Every structure is written in structure tokens, then in C-alpha cells.
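Worked Example 4.2. Read the sequence first, then its C-alpha cells.
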Amino acid sequence: MAASTGKLVVTQVRSAIGAKANQRATLKSLGLRKIRQSVERDDTPQIRGMIHTVRHLVAVEEVGS
């Protein structure tokens, strides 16, 4: 597999209150705890899948390497 080419900045924009348990767990594993908190993660298929799970709760920006 090729090395990841960039980073993703993931920002929580909506509350996890009322979300399903797996969505809350996904936010936690991404490192998000509060609204408007941002984390930088490598752009990998695993992270993309996690973002897809909580796509309605987060905003994503691509950042160059």
C-alpha cells in the first residue's frame, strides 16, 4: 500500500447527545469530546470509514502533508 499523502482536520460541529452508541464511540476514538474541538488525523481508509460513520456530526478539511 502507498503511504498516506495528507492529513485530515476533523472538527466536531454537533453534539453526540442522542446519537447511537457506536457513533459516540467513534467520536471518542477519533479523539473528539467537545463541540468545535478539532483533531488532525492521517488520511487513511480506516479514518475515512470512521468519519463516514459520524459524517453528520463532524466537518472535515483536507490539509497537505
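Now turn to a second chain, presented in exactly the same format:
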Amino acid sequence: MTNKMTNKIHLNTLISLTVLSVALSLTACNNGNNKTASIPVQKQMTNLGEVYTDKEGMTLYTFNKDVANTSNCNGGCAAKWPPLIAADNASEKGRFTIITRADNSKQWALDGRPLYRWVNDNTSGDTTGEGVKSVWYVAQTVPVSKRNTNVTTNGVSHKTTVLTDTSGMTLYGFTNDQSKPAGSSCNDGCAIEWPPLMATNSDQDSGDYSIITRDDNSRQWAYRGMPLYRFVDDNAPGDTVGEEDKNIWYVAQATPVSKYHTDQGTVLTDTHWISLYVLDNETTSNLLCTGGCLNAWPPLKADAGDINRDDYTIFTNSNGEAQWAYKDKPLYRWKNDSTPGEISGHGLAHPSGATWIVAKP
């Protein structure tokens, strides 16, 4: 075989090997890009509404003791709340970012909030970590979270779970919105002091959360029909400075309950600001309003996915319905109240000798 032919064979072999090498490199690169672009998160409907889960359907949570882009859950905490680890070649996308943990591993975060699983969730869609130690809450697909914090109403300070934005800032409801169903009465200068929780054009209603259209055609999030706002004088997560401001602003609670100012002071209402009542001698274990009483005094019913929160608990009434109670006292509306803040049922007598009184925080 001549040197010329030998060189040609060697050249062809080299070219073939080079082409194969490039092809393998491109394949590896493409596989890497696919892996990089893939966020190990999906959406799933649960008893708490639509939440983010890992690819196996296990619910993801956020930790109120974390600060933006930093995890404070390490050691034993991380054993109970395993972080959602990001691959070394993972890339951030949209609301999902990547933080570096204390051990230099990478962790996925939602809007800067590190994401975790909970060891006591056993099956896909479980949400048993919700509210644990009043600092752990499910990662909702809407831009809303929760926080257990101090709220002072009627001069009394108490702990309750409020809705927040994803940075932990308290959200509020505006009782004047009752005059504008499915809209907002807070515009112009009001909206500067009370910034609405805005929705993007691609956002869609999800469970208890719906989207209203404002006067300028922008979109705003609402909770059970109640538009949501922040307050400019709240400076840190958990602040509730706006509570009872001008007697028309109240924190948005993580229950279907709001507040309204009446001549009896601030009272509890549903999220449409219709007053709620209790019987002074009734408890969840000693029910007095049964049978026809429940027609005159419609109970504040709990939805299938609702859970106990702080002083708000759920029990089964005499009709077999799930009903809300506040500090162990069942909550009702009065059939003759038709406008927000009306309390025409206050002081009425019950056949048992008990008295109906408007519920107060």
C-alpha cells in the first residue's frame, strides 16, 4: 500500500472520528440543555387549592423564617423539610430561581423563597405541612402566601394567620369595595397608599383567588371576591399597621372572614362584609341553633378544603354541614341583614334564653 493511500485512509478515519465526536458532543450538549431547562416542579390541585409540587406530586412549602434568597433551614430542620435541590447545570426561569445553601448545594426558590418538601406528607397532593409551627405554608401557584402575626383590633392584640404577598408583606381588604362588586374603589391617590396586588395578563382564576378588572383595565387579585392590597406604611414582613385604618381597611385573613366597623365597634363579617353572629351560651359541643333555627340564622359554612386556623375552627353542625366557629363559638349570619355592616340581629333572643350577639375579633 502506498504512502499516499495510507495517508488517505488515516485522513478518512480521522474525519469519521471527528464527526462522531462532534455528534456525541452535540447530543450531550442537547441533553444537558434539556436538563438545564427543566424545572422539577409541576402544578397540582389539592384541598388547599392549586399548589406547586415536585415531579412526584409531593407538595412544596416555604418557610417564614427564611429571608429572600437565603435558606435558614439546615441540619435537623432540613432532615424534616428536605430542600428541593437544583442540579449543578440548572438554569433559572420565570418565578423560579436558584439559591446557594450553607453547604454550597443549590436549591430551587419561588420568587426568592426557598422550596422544601415535608417528610410527613405520604402521598401525592398531601398538605399536612400547612401551618406547622405557624411558619410553614404551601407554595401556592398564585402570588400569595401566609404568615402568622400580631393584629390589633378593637384595642386587643391577637395572633392570626393573614394573607401576604410573596415577599411576606400583609394584604388587606377595603370595605368600600362593597359599593363596586367585582371591581375596586381604590384608585388614583388611594392606590398609591394602598398598592393593589396586581395580576399579569396570563394569570387566571385559581380556587379561592379570582382576578378583577380595575378602572384602568389593569388586573388585580381578589380572595373570595375581596380585592387585595398592600399598605405603604408596613415596613417589614408581618407588619399590620393598616389594620382598622380609617375603620375601612382590615387584614385579609386566611379564612372566609373579614371585618367591618359598626356602632358596636369592629365586628367579624364574611368576605362580602355581611355581619357574623354567635349565641352567647352556645359552643361547638353544646349546639343551641338547630333545625329551623339554621334557616333564620344561616351558618357560615366551610368548604371541603378548608382547615382550622388559629382561633377559627371547623365543626359539624346539626344538619351535618361543616361550619366555621370562632373561639369555639359557631358563626352565623342573620337572614334579615342585607347590607355590609348591618347588625339588625344583635340582641335578639333565642328560645333557649341565650342572646344573639354580633361576633367581634
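Notes for the reader: The chain is about 15% helix and 25% strand. Residues 17 and 23 are 10 Å apart (CA to CA).
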